[in-house]
Design a protein that fits this description.
This protein has helices at about 15-25, 40-50, 70-85, 105-115, 140-145, 155-165, 190-200, 205-210, 220-230, 260, 275-290, 300-310, 340-355, 380-385, 390-400, 415-420, 440-445, 455-480, 495-505, 510-515, and strands spanning about 5-10, 30-35, 55-60, 95-100, 100-105, 120, 125, 180, 185-190, 235, 240, 270, 335-340, 360, 405-410, 430-435, 485-490. With about 525 residues, it is of the alpha/beta class. Helix 13 (about 340-355) packs antiparallel against helix 20.
Length: about 525
Amino acid sequence: MAKIAFILLCHKDPKAIIAQAKRLTAAGDFISIHFDARAGADKFAQIQAGLRDNPSVTFAKRRLKCGWGEWSLVQATLYAVEAAYEAFPDASHFYMLSGDCNSIKSAAYAHEFLDTHDKDYIESFDYFTSGWIKTGMKAERLIYRHFVNERKHKKLFYLLMDWQKKLKLERAVPDDIQMMIGSQWWCLRRKTVKKVLEFCRERKDVIRFFRTTWIPDETFFQTVVNHVVAVREIEKRTLTFLMFTDYGMPVTFYNDHFDLLLSQDFLFARKISPESAELKERLGQLWASERTDFVISGEGKKLHGFLTGRGRIGRRYAPRFWENESTLGQERALLMIVCKKWHVAKRLLTTAKRVTRMRGLEYMFDEAGCEIPHLGGLERTLEKRNRHRRAVMRLLFDYFHADEMMICLDPNNVDLMRDFMSDKSSNRILELQCNFDDAYLIGHAHRVGLAREETPPEVVEQLLPTLRHDFDHEASRIREAGFRKHYRVHQNFSVDQNASVLAEFFNIDMDAACEIAETPYLFDD
């Protein structure tokens, strides 16, 4: 009978890891754990203590600090695989998992399935011709050397790549291997794992190549397995059920997904919500059962998309993580700088970032070209940013590891202000009130397409009262919203008057506030 050695890569929640390991090994299987070195030693000690008496548990020989897209993820996996291969000679299969994965069948079903199907399960498609990569870098992931993390050092990452392009430092893929790509969640037979480990010892040149590729966890095992195993012995799919939304983020499963998950032709699913204790409990009981009578329908992606798209609060599969009710976090503060004259807000933001050392983004909800970090595709269009605004901000807080952030907003975005100001986080608004002379209004009419160079002057003159009224109306809507933490500075106020408001808004001393209030040419057009 098949026995599985689970390869678990994780970085948080020791209690959940201990529970997961105990549950998976209770049916006679094994587990090898790599716990990210970025997590504290005390947390790792907690895991070791909790599993010390379990002979079916082992740990990777070294703990690495892992980063998304880096070789460290592959190396951590290899360390865990090596530990499992040595510690568990009875293991017939090696199954890659994360802390967010959970079984959706019984152990009895999984063992029978693997006994019946003598195959390796790993997504592996031709890197260059399959179209697996939809957007972003493709050949550049391989032909250039990547020494820094794109998410942590974005400017340096692309600067180094640009230098290599200019100096024509492209490198060739090792000529005797076919580069493949696919999901990092795989299940391999013992004899395949042996071949992969032997390949790693013998082909140091290939290891060196992959060490400086970008996102190698999507290419390394996929390429090597296809190199050492006959194609007829590979099933090019994963046994872990996972879905992605239309903006590239993983779908999270909740308590009411139990029946949906069981009907899928997979053994595990990712990602299970940390809050879905009932779902985890039911799936844990299922894994320990002897049940094998699962009816496989495989309609998961279509059904989930259909019901989620029509979901309402209280109905099955209603929107959860991306819905308006998700909070930014009670401990966080979003500072909104609101101004119709975008150049004025941007000048103040630039000074405020320097003085307060706070992170800030410009008109990210109003300006499509605003520079914004990569958030898995959620940031790509204005429509997505506005539709999932709380999710975007949560991801930005996480990305910058910040508790306070600044953004600029156009006054017409009152609904967005209402949404953020109703959040449990400590948010506040700073309104920069400007004077609008006729020259500015005429320029605005041209910028937004209300007038062109050939538009008769008398027609443009007729637009001015309407535009002025429109600006006044936007300001009135903000006042009428009755925001509790609404601060105002005005072009006609003195530096001291404005500094007093800025000191309270930014929670800084008067000297720093004066420096911001004295931003050169702040209100100039």
